[in-house]
Known about the structure:
The chain is mainly β. The chain has one domain: CATH 2.40.50.140. The protein contains 1 helix and 6 strands; from the N terminus they run ββββαββ. It has a 5-stranded mixed β-barrel with strand order 1-3-4-6-5. A hairpin with a 5-residue loop joins β5 and β6.
Amino acid sequence: MNKIIVIGNLGRDPEMRYTPSGQSVTSFSVASNRKYTTGAGEQREETEWFNVSAWGKLAELCNQFLTKGRQVYVEGRLHSRSYEARDGQLRFSNEITLTDVQFLGGAGAVGEDRSPYSPGSGGGDEGPPLDDVDDLPF
């Protein structure tokens, strides 16, 4: 099973583009923070960054409702690849291919009492009727 779940905040606004066949794809980054105490009693915080790509209806929803700073729950498959950089060095990249998303908090809000929306799991083909946006819980 290949499944990853991350809760964090968007590091930049989503970027949507289209494949030559017309399918929409949206890319964005999510930062997840972790606080811990070292063996010496020192408080530390580290941030891990994740690149995320969403396809089809999930791509359109993410592009419409996500903005930089917004808290989000992302679930998907971890995809690894390698490539040669401009300097000739071999580089590695990990990316989450989105299968489920929940929009947490208000636009850019962090730590508020929230009512998450989930378009569902299993490929993200379901979602809210986009013509009736007033019924969305955020």
